[in-house]
Amino acid sequence: MAQILLQLQDSSYPCEVVHSKRARYLRIKLANNGELSVVVPNGVALNQVEDFVFSQADWVERKLKALSPVNNKPSELQLAYLEETWTIEYQADNHLNSLNVFNEGASTIKCIGAVDDSSLLHKALGQWLKQKAEQVIPRRLAALAELHGFHYNRVTIRGQKTRWGSCSSSKNINLNYKLLFLEPSLVDYVLIHELCHTLEMNHSAKFWNLVGDCDANYKWHDKALNKMARTLPF
Ligand SMILES: [Zn+2]
After folding, report:
1. Which CATH number is correct for 76-228, 3.50.90.10, 3.90.550.10, 3.40.50.720, 3.30.2010.10?
2. d(CA 203, ligand 1 centre) in Å
3. N or C, which end of the chain is more exposed by having fewer CB within 10 Å?
4. What pTM was computed for the model?
């Protein structure tokens, strides 16, 4: 199935191309799980389809915002990487314009304060996730680097909006705390991908060969990762 990459304000978003014999005109759809597709009648050229999809960017952006769980309060965080599910309890205190997050027991997070301020909530939970990621992800990166013989300089955990990771020309690696939401095999793929960038700062054939040497299933993992990006809690 073909895919069109739609450029949005701060990310690119994949749109599946679905051919339909019964369709009479081009139609774009955004499913509740975030899957974007365009239905294409017979005889419409790909560049026409692209023009149509690109013309719908504002609509997609608006719809995505409405779908985004950032507007709601998540009731739990499923950290597939650690096989942990954390229930979130909220205690609103409208006198506070800050938000505190702390652990209560082994599987509950308590949020106290301005819990209806979605940007504060997002920040506070992000901070909590960052600390959690810092305990496990850099260690895994070091182990994979050792195993495959890569060298990097520094590793930093961040909350980038659209990237799982990046690697600078000075071999500093940035990784997203949202990796915690992924299965271990996908996290390993991201780490290997960034480690390979310490040798090849591009996505050339040489780069992908290197990735393939370290992860035989890299194509599948790369695809699965693109899908996951659409279903993250934030
Ligand atoms: Zn890359």
Report:
1. 3.30.2010.10
2. 6
3. N
4. 0.71
